[in-house]
Please model this.
Amino acid sequence: MGSRGPIPNREEDLARPRERKGGDVQEVTKGTALPTKVPHADSDWHPIARKLWDAVKVSGQTTYYQQSDWAYLYSLCDDLSHYKKSFKRSSQMAQVIYAALGNLLITEGDRRRARIELSEPEPEVKPASVTAIEDYKRSLGIA
Model:
C-alpha cells in the first residue's frame, strides 16, 4: 500500500518527474497476474454494499485485482452490509471498514498514494486515409 499523509499530485501535474526531484525511487518486485473470476454479489446485502460492489466491478483499478482481492472485497461488502443493517452502529467499525476498503485502492486518493493513476481511454481516431476513402465512397453512392 502507499504511504500515509497528503495525497501526492498526479504525475502530469508535476513540473518534472519524481525521479529527477531526488525522491526515493523504489525498486518494484514483479510477479505474474493470474486469471480471476469475479464472484457474484450476495443477494441479501444492504443496497449500499451492493452498489459499492457493482461500482468496483466496472472500475479501472480492478485491472490489478487478483482472486484474493475479490475475496477481500466480498468480505468487506458483507461486513459493510451487516454494519448498515445494524440498529446500533459503531463509529470504530465504520473506520475499520473504510480503512480496509482503502487497501483495495477504491478511491482516487488511495490510488495516487500507491502511485497508480487511471487515465481516460484515448479516443479511437480514424486515419485520414480511411476517412478520405469513406467520403469518396459516399460521394459515389457506394457506402
The helical segments are 47-57, 67-85, 91-103, 108-113, 128-140. The first helix runs from residue 47 to 57.
